[in-house]
Amino acid sequence: MLSNIPVRHYLQFADFSADEYAYLLQRAEFLKAKFKRYETWHPLHDRTLAMIFEKNSTRTRLSFEAGIHQLGGHAVFLNTKDTQLGRGEPVEDAAQVISRMTDIIMIRTFGQDIIERFASNSRVPVINGLTNEYHPCQVLADIFTFVEHRADIKGKTIAWIGDANNMAYTWVQAAEILDFKVNFSAPPGYQLDEKLLSAQAKKHLTVFQNPLDACKGADLVTTDVWTSMGYEDENQARLKAFKNWMVTDELMAAAHADALFMHCLPAHRGEEVAASVIDGSQSVVWDEAENRLHVQKALMEFLLCGKL
Ligand code: CP
Ligand code: NVA
Question: Which residue puts its alpha carbon closest to atom 1 of ligand 1?
């Protein structure tokens, strides 16, 4: 069934304004509280979410599937291996067909161009569940988690230690929209591509050679795997290049005393993060994972019903 509100997609963090994020964050808080009280809330009664996975997932699949169910709807899981996408059906054709049978679509794929082509041919909202370039749902959950544990993220400093991957680019986009700072540190050869950053976003970014310097004064230290999905052939080279970019207790000690640690998960203890940090008192990784559920419920509700 077609919604009567204009179709909006969520393909990257920059797709929404600061005002819309303020709404989504307070809505996620509202929906989380309802969930904790076991209160039924079915604004998406009878709606169907198609979830298309071209890469593996635990959290994204679970949080979207549980989330649409809790909102009164239903999820259909599709992956490359079992669908005609894996046999070369054009993404444009798949989008036409899938969007005629469902109300909202989430895709995890490779290049951002794929999700953009899909969205251009979809008559229902399309959500980015991770591409090579961006992971907006995760950063939305991370910011909600920061707000829950501390306060508004505006004016705060985030230290990103590690690869210039989909999470890093999304944090930089978020810094521009929500007005905070990103201290970035990665080994030579694994830096952010400045051509992919807006002039405005660059004003919120400081690049450090030494990861310890990047952590100084940070309110949040965050990292991610050294080798993202799709880059497995580079794993051996990356293990060598990134060996001094592990988030250790020493790095956490350089940040503010009350700094939080986040990781989108899955994590590799002893590579990008020391076990003592991810399992330590400053780590909020389990809240971060849970909050995927709550922010994505707010996101699906917003895309299909607008502001309630
Ligand atoms: N963080 C995240 O997106 O996890 P999954 O790969 O398990 O979905
Ligand atoms: N950067 C990682 C995130 C996994 C959730 C990847 O793309 O594999």
Answer: 264
Give, in words, the CATH class of 13-135+291-305: alpha beta
Beta carbon of 161 within 6 Å of any ligand 2 atom: no
CATH, domain range 138-288: 3.40.50.1370
What ranges in 179-274 are assigned the alpha helix state H? 199-202, 211-215, 235-241, 249-254
Looking at every residue in the chain, the average pLDDT score rounds to 97
| 286, pLDDT greater than 90 | yes
Report the separation in Å between the CA atom of 98 and the middle of ligand 1, taken as the mean of its atom positions.
Answer: 23
Average pLDDT estimate for 198-226: 98
The average pLDDT across 209-215 equals: 98
Q: Sorting pLDDT into bands at 50, 70 and 90, what band is 127?
A: very high
Domain with CATH 3.40.50.1370 in the chain: 13-135+291-305, 138-288
Q: Which residues contact 87 (CB under 8 A, 6 or more apart)?
A: none
Token look-up 């309802």 returns 34
